[in-house]
Design goal:
With 349 residues, the chain is an alpha/beta fold. 30% of the residues lie in helices and 26% in strands.
Length: 349
């Protein structure tokens, strides 16, 4: 998966082959329009206040794709809120695309190839659909135990073959339930090293993760016999990650419970967890107030876009939001989490 997505020359993402939107392979919140970035910018502003209004506010984005989200945030927050916007991007092709998109904001933006290049700081780390594209291991139940499916080559074709579990997965396996033979579950050990790196970087601040997935109890429910991994190409979904590597997206749902546990072990606290519908209802409150009055063409367009982001059969329940804090006293929930339930009971109940 790492090669198929991130090889510099042939990887789906790193080579610039990934296409998002109507003419691409799949939709995201950003492809719907600028409203998503504007609403998240409002949430960043609230975080800035709680951080004590540092000047500039440090925002670190990872998984920025072509830079449109960053452009929407910068357009909304500048010039009244000074920003130092850092994009973590290992792909030279994507960096070039981002610099074109962000040409009006180059004084406020910098690029690094990986998290290790960022010195300790206070601020916000944001990611949208990053974790789902982190390489995962596929586990298969067999006679009361779990085996990892690894990739083999038979007669010139890639196939999955059960193998003994590697040492890097043993701790993760302890949380796996007993399931009938043949059940598939994905694990992402890389999440732990990712939260390790963020713990070193963020002295005081927030992590905001937007992605599709579930708490562990729902993700590992008994009816999910075939796991959650999927591939997308030309808006068509398949479950064949070994076919046409490098030509399509490979993804699996995020285990938000495992992500929260790894972060808590690194000194973070859970600020909130909810689905996109409830998050955006809270985050859009001031926007909706500004639209009160006689409808205009612009206000009607904004409302249509908001409905697309909120719709339960579209994006509203597909995506979840997890906010983590470090060094910030817990108080009233952030705007996006005011309508959410107790996060720990959802994630670990």
């Amino acid at each position: 998966m790492d090669l198929a997505l991130y090889d510099p020359d042939l990887g789906y993402y790193a080579s610039g082959r990934a296409k998002i939107g109507r003419q691409g392979d799949f939709y995201t919140n950003v492809s719907v329009g600028s409203l998503f970035g504007r609403l998240l910018a409002g949430q960043f502003r609230e975080m800035w206040h709680r951080l004590g209004k540092p000047s500039p506010l440090r925002i670190i984005e990872q998984g920025a794709h072509d830079g449109r989200f960053a452009a929407d945030v910068l357009t909304t927050l500048l010039p009244d809120l000074p920003l130092n916007y850092t994009i973590v991007e290992p792909s030279p092709i994507l960096r070039d695309q981002q610099k074109i998109t962000l040409a009006p904001f180059l004084d406020a933006v910098q690029w690094v190839e990986d998290l290790e290049a960022i010195a300790p700081c206070d601020g916000i780390h944001f990611s949208n659909e990053l974790i789902d594209a982190m390489p995962f291991h596929i586990m298969q139940s067999s006679q009361g135990t779990w085996q990892e499916l690894r990739v083999d080559n038979q007669r010139g074709e890639f196939v999955f073959q059960p193998a003994k579990t590697g040492p890097d997965l043993r701790s993760e396996e302890q949380n796996l339930p007993t399931r009938p033979d043949g059940t598939l579950i994905e694990l992402r050990p890389g999440v732990r090293s990712w939260t390790d790196a963020l713990s070193r970087i963020l002295q005081t601040g927030y992590i905001l993760v937007v992605d599709y997935g579930f708490p562990r109890q729902e993700l590992h429910a008994s009816h999910r016999r075939e796991g959650t991994f999927s591939c997308y190409q030309n808006h068509r979904r398949d479950a064949e990650p070994l076919l046409a590597p490098g030509e399509k997206d490979i993804t699996a749902h995020v285990d938000f419970s495992a992500l929260a546990e790894a972060a808590m072990e690194n000194g973070f606290q859970i600020e909130g967890f909810t689905d996109q519908h409830h998050f955006l209802v809270g985050a859009a409150n001031s926007l909706l107030q500004s639209l009160e009055g006689p409808p205009t063409r612009a206000s009607q367009k904004t409302l249509r876009t908001l409905r697309s982001l909120l719709h339960p059969e579209n994006l509203g329940t597909r995506f979840h939001y997890l906010a983590l804090t470090k060094g910030i006293p817990m108080g009233e929930p952030l705007a996006g989490f005011r309508h959410g339930r107790d996060p720990e009971s959802i994630l670990f109940g």
